[in-house]
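Sequence in, structure out. Go.
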Amino acid sequence: MSARSKARKRALDFLYEADIKKVSASELFAARGATELSQEPYVAVLLQGVSDHLVKIDELIVTYAQGWDMDRMPAIDRNILRIAIFEILWAADIDLQVACDQAVELAKSISTDESSSYINGVLGRIIKLKDSIAI
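Output:
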C-alpha cells in the first residue's frame, strides 16, 4: 500500500470518527494526529481540505448521489466520497482516476458490497462534470 493510500485510510478514520461523534476531524487530528495514527503529512492535507470545502462537497454529494439523503448514506461511504471529491476538485497534483480508484478500493475493503459501485458512479459523474462545477 502506497503512502498516499495509507494517508487516505487514516484520514478516513478521523473523518468517520468525527462524523459519528459530531466533532471536527481537524481537532481530532490536532489532538492525536502525529502521536497516534499518522506521521504522513498528507493526512493533514486531506482533513484540512475536506474541512475547508465541506459545504460544497456535501452539496455535490446530495446532488449526485441520486436516491440517497446524507443522513441515510452510511457514514463510511459519505466520508470516502468527501475525500475523493476534495482530491478530484481541489488537489491539482492527484490524477482524477487515481482519486476515484482509491475511493472505490477503500469502499471494497471496508464498506458494503454495493458501496464500491455506487461510489464509482457518483465520482464518475463528478469527474465528467468537473469543468462545469463552480468551486
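Check: The mean pLDDT is 90. DSSP finds seven helices and no strands in the chain.
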